[in-house]
Amino acid sequence: MEVGPPHSGLIRAAPTTYFQNSLGLRVRLEEWGMWVAGRGGASGFFKGMFGDDIFASFRNAAAGAEGGSTGVPRKAAAIERMLPCSLEDLYKGTTKKMKISRDVTDASGRPTTMEEILTIEIKPGWKKGTKITFPEKGNEQRGVIPSDLVFIIDEKPHSVFKRDGNDLVATQKISLVEALTGYTAQVTTLDGRNLTIPINNVVSPTYEEVVKGEGMPIPKEPGKKGNLRIKFNIKFPSRLTSEQKTGIKRLLTSS
After folding, report:
1. Which residues make beta-bridge pairs with 3?
2. What are the residue boundaries of the Chaperone DnaJ C-terminal domain, all occurrences included (predicted)?
């Protein structure tokens, strides 16, 4: 049997010199060589099959297998926006409405602008940096998946409290006499309750009074809160008389 030029479908008998290949198929070398030579030799033969750049065919095939030429749309980068919240909002939780406008394509394929109201549920105890994602709420573009819209919680400064993790920290000014003899702290919480906290210890510049369970809610532990920590800014007298100095020395020495 004889095999004709590739893909010709020709199979015919030929009584000349044969070559036995690994599949047991005999090929007439003389006519095969003439057929290849008539197409510019081996280089012309492969050029006819693959073009000027033989390896380009393989590169293109590989790119297609990886999705490089499949036309699959890419996704646009996320759009991030800061969402300022008061400490009261983050303590109690709240709902915020955000109005956005974006470019979309209508049913007829024409570009138009659409306005939308997004609702964000702020949970008690959320921290600065918490992200809320609305998938594919960015502008629509041909061949591009719309970007996600991401709001990032930002904490506004508070006039009384600073947040330290799940704790709340407040600083109160007291006199030296109060630091030595006792003091009663009055604190209004973020949800409007009034706390009266007697302090019977001697207050040093580094002393903190800790009130357990009066800090920020802990989102992953419902019903639990951090602590309230009260720090003190002790006001020292600018001057003392000789009698006052003597009295203080006598008092502190005797104790």
Report:
1. 11
2. 80-237
**The domain made up of 75-155 is a member of CATH 3.30.70.420:** no
Give the DSSP letter of residue 70. Answer: S
- Count of Cβ atoms closer than 10 Å to residue 65 Cβ: 10
Model confidence, pTM: 0.67
Percent of the chain with pLDDT over 90: 56
Say what the pLDDT of residue 23 is.
44
Listed in order, the ranges of the chain carrying CATH 2.60.260.20 are: 75-155, 161-254
Q: Give the model's confidence band at 41: pLDDT under 50 very low, under 70 low, under 90 confident, else very high.
A: low
Residue 48: band (very low, low, confident or very high) from pLDDT cuts 50, 70, 90: low
CB within 8 Å of 15: residues ≥ 6 apart: none
- Count of positions (residues) in the chain: 255
Calculate the alpha carbon distances from 121 to 80, 87, 161, 163 in Å: 17, 15, 23, 21
